[in-house]
Amino acid sequence: MTQTLHIVGGGMAGSEAAWQAAEMGVDVVIHEMRPKVETFAHKTGNLGEMVCSNSFRSDDDEQNAVGLLHWEMRTANGLIMTTADEHRLPAGGALAVDRDPFAETVTAKLKAHPRISVSYEEITYLPQDGHWIFATGPLTSTNLGAAIQAETGAEALAFFDAIAPILYAESIDMSKAWMQSRYDKGETEEERTAYLNCPMDKDQYEAFIDALLTADKTEFHEGETAGYFDGCLPIEVMAERGRETLRFGPMKPVGLTNPHSPENKAYAVVQLRRDNALGTLFNIVGFQTKMKYGAQTEVLRMIPGLENASFARLGGIHRNTFLNSPTLLDNQMRLKSKPHIRFAGQITGVEGYVESAAMGLLAGRLAAAEILGIDLPTVPQDSAMGALIHHITGGAEAKTFQPMNVNFGLFQPVEGLKGGRRGRKDRYKAYTDRAKAAWQDWLSHS
């Protein structure tokens, strides 16, 4: 008789894990505490809810590591990627989705699956037996976090993810802003005009930096520390690192021409991206913030074109807890001290929707294979999946372990190819070709 797989957490990782295991023939119960137990960032009880950006980042599977991860997940009939494709929004070379219909569809697909049931309850302990995957993400509840901490004997490692503001499109002044993807990237006109751009001259930029530095910020609770992940820094923290940091980061002015004043090159540019299919909402790209609400509206309305901005959601901040996975997990994502328990998603020390869902995909397949008695080979390190799981379960330095996005720096070198920027295109293509072959071979065993 098939044994039941229990999955705690119905975010990206838990949803994908449940889908993969059920598709392999295993009965699954998803334990989700929302909406009975709320979190700071979630707004609904939907499975697969997106709480930060609505982007899955680059969809280029030949020259980008996250795009390669997209490809591998699609090849494995991944729930998250299939649903993202169904609710895709124009975003240049990126994959952005209409967040609410996306989560609604993920929820509907999981609930309709004959082998999946959903139990709305908070799990506050680590079970002593059975088959379990914990995919509770950055907002793991306090009680469960304490149970994990007690079992692992390690202090919880925490940093803070900041959420970018979303505003109404109708409140943007299009006499100052314009639509253009950087370097006109994209195969269609819709893709080439996927981003809304707000230009700043030098004086406007300097005044904006001054306002960021002096704005009221959210205070941390006693005992908390602000160890930020570099890929999700609040804009005010970037400004504190140097007055030019933002201008060489999310506000870089390159690859853009202002049609309102083509002869004048902007000193800095703020970009916004569509946040829903209707085009009524835009999020400010790279503008995660921990400013207090009053300060946010005041400072963000200094941006040309956003002087009268009306906000659908202001930015916020939340803690992200993750395991020291190189120490605690084996290469099957099992907790070494309790091997009937696997961890998946962001709590394992990966960063981003795609990476979280990818680790859910692997955990679901590995757990299902174990239940069904299928002897799977080790996930190939040459694949994007394998490079990432290898890093978090042993490839990273445990003493300095921090959350990691997938990137080609995690891949084993390809012999005979030169390094450096000049050889990058050929090198990346070689990585992706090799990865696709390795991943398809691994899938064939399950």
Automatic annotation (TrEMBL):
GO terms for molecular function: flavin adenine dinucleotide binding; tRNA (uracil(54)-C5)-methyltransferase activity, 5,10-methylenetetrahydrofolate-dependent. Residues 5-373 form the MnmG N-terminal domain. Keywords: Cytoplasm, FAD, Flavoprotein, Methyltransferase, NAD, NADP, Transferase, tRNA processing. Catalyzes the folate-dependent formation of 5-methyl-uridine at position 54 (M-5-U54) in all tRNAs. It comes from Phaeobacter gallaeciensis. It catalyses: uridine(54) in tRNA + (6R)-5,10-methylene-5,6,7,8-tetrahydrofolate + NADPH + H(+) = 5-methyluridine(54) in tRNA + (6S)-5,6,7,8-tetrahydrofolate + NADP(+); uridine(54) in tRNA + (6R)-5,10-methylene-5,6,7,8-tetrahydrofolate + NADH + H(+) = 5-methyluridine(54) in tRNA + (6S)-5,6,7,8-tetrahydrofolate + NAD(+). It is an enzyme of class 2 (transferase). Pfam families: GIDA (PF01134). GO terms for biological process: tRNA methylation; tRNA wobble uridine modification. SUPFAM superfamilies: FAD/NAD(P)-binding domain. GO terms for cellular component: cytosol. FAD binds at G9, G10, G11, M12, A13, G14. This is Methylenetetrahydrofolate--tRNA-(uracil-5-)-methyltransferase TrmFO. Its EC number is 2.1.1.74. Belongs to the MnmG family. TrmFO subfamily. It is found in: Cytoplasm. Its cofactor is FAD. The lineage of its organism: Bacteria, Pseudomonadati, Pseudomonadota, Alphaproteobacteria, Rhodobacterales. InterPro entries: FAD/NAD-bd_sf (IPR036188), MnmG-rel (IPR002218), MnmG_N (IPR040131), TrmFO (IPR004417).
